Amino acid sequence: MTTVAVKPATMAQALTRALRDAMAADPAVHVMGEDVGTLGGVFRVTDGLAKEFGEDRCTDTPLAEAGILGTAVGMAMYGLRPVVEMQFDAFAYPAFEQLISHVARMRNRTRGRMPLPITIRVPYGGGIGGVEHHSDSSEAYYMATPGLHVVTPATVADAYGLLRASIASDDPVVFLEPKRLYWSKDSWNPEEPAPVEPIGRAVVRRSGRSATLITYGPSVPVCMEAAEAARAEGWDLEVVDLRSLVPFDDETVSASVRRTGRAVVVHESGSFGGPGGEIAARVTERCFHHLEAPVLRVAGFDVPYPPPMLERHHLPGVDRILDAVGRLQWEAES
Amino acid sequence: MTTVAVKPATMAQALTRALRDAMAADPAVHVMGEDVGTLGGVFRVTDGLAKEFGEDRCTDTPLAEAGILGTAVGMAMYGLRPVVEMQFDAFAYPAFEQLISHVARMRNRTRGRMPLPITIRVPYGGGIGGVEHHSDSSEAYYMATPGLHVVTPATVADAYGLLRASIASDDPVVFLEPKRLYWSKDSWNPEEPAPVEPIGRAVVRRSGRSATLITYGPSVPVCMEAAEAARAEGWDLEVVDLRSLVPFDDETVSASVRRTGRAVVVHESGSFGGPGGEIAARVTERCFHHLEAPVLRVAGFDVPYPPPMLERHHLPGVDRILDAVGRLQWEAES
Amino acid sequence: MTVMEQRGAYKPTPPPAWQPRTDPAPLLPDAEPYRVLGTEAAAKADPELLRALYAQLVKGRRYNAQATALTKQGRLAVYPSTTGQEACEVAAAMVLQERDWLFPSYRDTLAVVARGVDPVEALTLLRGDWHTGYDPHEHRVAPLCTPLATQLPHAVGLAHAARLKGDDVVALAMVGDGGTSEGDFHEALNFAAVWQAPVVFLVQNNGFAISVPLAKQTAAPSLAHKAVGYGMPGRLVDGNDAAAVHEVLSDAVRHARAGGGPTLVEAITYRVDAHTNADDATRYRGDAEVETWREHDPIRLLERELTGRGLLDEAGIEAARQDAETMAAALREQMNQDAVLDPMDLFDHVYAEPTPQLREQRDQLRAELEAEAESEGGTHR
Amino acid sequence: MTVMEQRGAYKPTPPPAWQPRTDPAPLLPDAEPYRVLGTEAAAKADPELLRALYAQLVKGRRYNAQATALTKQGRLAVYPSTTGQEACEVAAAMVLQERDWLFPSYRDTLAVVARGVDPVEALTLLRGDWHTGYDPHEHRVAPLCTPLATQLPHAVGLAHAARLKGDDVVALAMVGDGGTSEGDFHEALNFAAVWQAPVVFLVQNNGFAISVPLAKQTAAPSLAHKAVGYGMPGRLVDGNDAAAVHEVLSDAVRHARAGGGPTLVEAITYRVDAHTNADDATRYRGDAEVETWREHDPIRLLERELTGRGLLDEAGIEAARQDAETMAAALREQMNQDAVLDPMDLFDHVYAEPTPQLREQRDQLRAELEAEAESEGGTHR
Ligand SMILES: Cc1ncc(C[n+]2csc(CCOP(=O)(O)OP(=O)(O)O)c2C)c(N)n1
Ligand SMILES: Cc1ncc(C[n+]2csc(CCOP(=O)(O)OP(=O)(O)O)c2C)c(N)n1
Ligand SMILES: [Mg+2]
Ligand SMILES: [Mg+2]
To answer: What are the boundaries of the region Disordered (chains C, D) (predicted)?
Structure first.
């Protein structure tokens, strides 16, 4: 292995590298999905894998998502570690029955005798000008399904580390890849033994004392930007990147909110019945007497994801986050 | 029509009556699903409809839930009002793509030109000793899907009124029928012009001043019982039956909590990512300065629904509700 | 008599002396795809129909080229072209009566336009200003359907509903070779056959599902062979032979209209362009293969037939080209105008009446836009 | 050589000179269900096999009766009986090698028991103390599968994985006639054929899906005809003829093991009992139909053959009955013991490691149970 200089890599490249390293490390790892082989996936995340490991290890399947996940269940029953690609968020819906009724329940059903180490990669979220059904944020469905881990990276390094950890997990992981961060770059040395991030730990991306922004995936960079902008208003915002929605890192989140006394949950997914409700509720349960204001939510509207030309109105941006921070009852302070 | 005395009827009978009246009132209403015709449904809710209205109006379909809902979409496109039965909660999962990607979005997709007046009846919840996949509480999935109404009755009268309203709605309604209340009885005069309840209004089932229990469907009777039991502890509990999860009746719920200053959300569905998070979060957003304690949740555990012999440990019962009420920081009072 | 009675009362399960419920033989497709152009059957084809098909093919080809060009100019977000598949697109629209319904897949804007929908409205989804631009009821065209195969049960349900109402309506549903692998394909065909619904399923087997070739999609003798498993006839047709596609689809529509039930038609064709403008087809197929298919081009095949029989001359060809250019110029001009957007549309059509929650959100966005407009010194468009 | 290479390199889409990818003729099922008993083929059948089948059938029938009786005594929550279908249940288990896998539907506890799983463990789901009672790896039997047809893709994936690993393993998956309408049936068969996975699909066509008769489920000539649409052979067999079912399934297993790919077998049988003990079959079918099928009972058919050929006498019949009674008595006794329950099981197997959230919930329940036990003056079991 030759040493290369640390250079910027995209999140997509880090994901490819994670798949490649996982396949090299463990012959049980199999990649499967629509167009993942010859084409390398519509986002090129599986680029080169079929060539390097052969079509038996990186397989173009027929076009049927329930079939893909259902056969992956059988493969996992026989000891393989399938990594399944769903081409877009909304195209995972045909596989819901397999996901909810089997993937999430097989270990429990068999009292631990038949675990299913399946990783389900789902490119999710909007902001890429996709037409209908190409921009859904479907994490609420996965969060509400016991038996699944739900993981989503926001940085290039986490994309690598969390995907490795997900593939290594003996339980099924829904691995949500924020589409619009695929081409985001970061200085990251792909030749360094990259850390395999443990699943279930949130991270404080930016410390601050005024209020906590609780967020994940595609909204992390937006929150970082908002935190920068907030300085002009005199607010010093802390940004917590959840990284894993299930398990949920109550410890890190609660510690932050107890410190700041105020919190806003930020995500692209719709607000009603979305992840923010759960997060706000549990933060409030745990930090009630530390809260100066109710935990607020900045989220997508409760509408089907809009068409490309209108999506900017839907996505939670810096202004909306700052508006919410402004409503955190600062007068209570004085 | 002859006048009959008010006599006890079961919720199942009220539902049958609602279907029958709706079919008689509007030839566009069609009932379809597995075993709904000759057999009258596994819960006998469609009993007699095929005989009275013919198999074209109450149709035994092939065994395929996506096909049932998908063809219902086409029927609705042509002006019919399909009422679809999903045999059990977990057997609605194969129809999720049709539900999320089409049923919930067709009106919006066509800027109102192609509404889909489909009612999807889903027997849900546990407590009936059902084997795996027969006791799921899947309302979180439906709540997180903009474009759907989500309705669930808790009384015999509401079963009639809300089902009539759902069928009359020009929008798709997921109508969740609490399985274990099918055989619950109530004095109800099926010959009286029964009220068609508007969708979206919660109702205070019992007024009280100490704290509010916010609940719906199968947990309503449990909360009523808990409220009775609470009197012994000196608590005078208010019980709000939501009846409709979407739209959500913020007005009624917030007014109650502002009055009592304390609230517990009670449902069978799992806690994490379940309806309670949304409800607690929005109540807190609206009533923060009236709250003496964080809004607590009493819910099913975050596990796949247990087998019959263990379900009593899972279901939220009177004791757990009273425990939660006890944790509402009454010391703050003094 | 109800529809249910019409298709025969309930017969008990076959007793030990077993009988097939349907004779499979007539359901099986022929071994060779049906062809008209360049065969003896061509002599019987109506010259007017052939000329009309030709004009539509030429226009269709030009439409594909123009739409692809619009993606380069940023006027369309994306365009999945049907270059090479125009015979199927055009014939699918032409075989239907006004009262019939067309159920297109995401790729079939050309069929939608050929059915009479305004080309700009047909492209709304792909331009990105809204999901569906046209009123489905106006020309009886369902919205372009992005989730593959999910439109097939809709077509079955609509056709069934029409039949229940006593209306003489046929639905034609389009799907790709890849789409046949989805569970919805199976369930739709089964419901259609059990209900004897007046539907025609047109599978355009264009060789690929994005990068995945047919050989990885199915091991069936042909996709048309799937029909027998539902108890409906399967028909195999050369999808680049416009006259053949028109004839086979017309027969199937007539059969459905007469109460004969559904038909599955597989049209063998080829996607000459990449999957969409965003796709790089060289990653998964060679030029040689594409060239083979250019030889078998639908326009060329029909042109050869027409000129050979003296039904078309240079002037006719030129006239068709001119027509197509006029259409393209008009499309270009219309698409160069900015879409008219109303952000309030986000909230206004989710339900018949916005929920209280949506009203709050709408007010929030309106306030934001007003503030934005003010700070820009302008007014809210 | 990889499995992918084995099944032939990628061939470009059929060029204009079209060739069917597979010859459909050998895939089509015969017009009549295959029969052995009472035909000339019976003479070739191995007497030992016939006697073994007979013993199993008699035991199976008794098992069904016993399990149904246990529902009446409240010892089982529910039981879907396979009375009348024992030939299929028993043969499915008997044709497999130790290393093979069985994928049962929710109805197939008898096949699971015939494969060697402890009868009490096989009934755990239906007794209600847990979802699956046995270790699937011990006898290579997947959990009884409640959501219809969803087990079929599992079988395909497992068989494919075994093949990729170079293991000589076949999977046999069971499904009902109703289950064939589900999308998962379609997707599973298609994947199996494309991958040439060593799977055998056994459809028990028992005439009904709960109350829905086959005529409302499909319009196909037979369910076996569905095979051709996937490019796999379809076989039709008399499901009450144990020798025939055994032979057809054995052939299919051998074919799969030899690398020949999947087979779809339709066994025509009849559900003599109601759907489950909770069902009232008189609502949807008449006694006359049931009686017809009692004439064609699998035990009777085989008994007639064996006694006719002098392979079985009264003593043999009695011995088989005794064996069955012994099994039933043992089952009764075991099932009369209360299940051992541990409420902590609720939390311990959701994940390899319980999440912090689940640990909290487990502690809560433990505390509740301790409080309960204390107030009852007992201790927590
Ligand atoms: C349910 C679903 N899964 C995946 C996709 C992504 N996708 C869009 S087009 C396509 C290939 C479609 O192939 P085919 O059905 O042959 O139609 P063609 O593109 O050739 O017209 C895929 C996989 C989708 N739109 N819907
Ligand atoms: C996906 C799904 N939908 C519905 C059901 C409810 N259900 C249980 S058994 C049954 C009928 C099954 O019929 P068939 O496949 O013929 O099997 P059989 O009962 O005859 O063995 C139905 C509808 C289910 N278990 N799973
Ligand atoms: Mg294609
Ligand atoms: Mg059956």
So the answer is: 1-26, 361-381
